[in-house]
Design brief:
binds uracil, Rossmann fold, 6 helices, seven-stranded mixed β-sheet
């Protein structure tokens, strides 16, 4: 699995991520969702550089210009509910993409965690580029389970995993457990998971901060 950590490069993306993490600024739910959306747009642009392109003649009012345009069918898939604001950024950039949804949640035990998936609504994926949008890559189990479920809908030509913050444990888990080539994109690889499987220092619960506590 190839891993791109976009936060290593200084850019305005790190300001948006700092605001997501900041314990005072993150209280503003509208700003929190908006920063996730902006990071989704930035990451979508970065991923766009890895897609395949086809030369296409474009007719302007004054002539013709040969341009290279994306030639892949993209399916954006998100894991609800925390992925929704981040997804919106991807949808704004990849405006022709189809979108799929997975509803899964963590069942927390004393020392382990299992993922319960209740709902899968995605288009056919055969030969398409799948971008799986999961805001916080913590244990990696929901992403690995999501990929297993998604393969029942056809074999994608490319798989990109998009997260705002990733934990080293989640990256290791995916490296060992996903059986197809995939590229992981993130803005930060944080220190570790805590005993409740939250990312430290992370930002807290992205779903609660976006939509309110459960
Ligand atoms: N999901 C979150 O929202 N935060 C974490 O730290 C881990 C998973």
């Amino acid at each position: 699995m190839t891993v791109y950590n976009l936060g290593k490069q200084n850019s305005v993306a790190n300001q948006f991520l700092a605001e997501l993490r900041d314990v005072n600024i993150q209280k503003d739910r509208l700003r929190f969702r908006h920063n996730l959306l902006r990071l989704g747009q930035i990451m979508a642009y970065e991923i766009s550089q890895k897609l395949t392109y086809r030369p296409t003649d474009i007719k302007t009012p004054l002539g013709k210009k040969l341009m290279h345009l994306p030639a892949t069918d993209i399916v954006l898939v998100t894991i609800m509910r925390a992925g929704l604001p981040f997804l919106e950024g991807f949808q704004r950039v990849f405006d022709k993409a189809e979108t799929g949804f997975i509803s899964s949640y963590r069942v927390e035990g004393n020392s382990k965690i299992t993922i319960q998936t209740d709902y899968l609504a995605t288009p056919r994926l055969e030969g398409k580029t799948v971008i799986l949008v999961d805001t916080m890559l913590a244990t990696g189990r929901s992403v690995a389970d999501a990929i297993t479920s998604l393969l029942s809908r056809g074999k994608p030509s490319q798989v990109h995993l998009a997260s705002v913050i990733a934990a080293p444990e989640g990256i290791d888990y995916l490296k060992k457990n996903i059986k197809l080539p995939a590229t992981l994109w993130t803005f930060s690889i944080d220190e570790k998971l805590n005993s409740r499987f939250y990312i430290v220092p992370g930002l807290g619960d992205a779903g609660d901060l976006s939509f309110g506590p459960k």
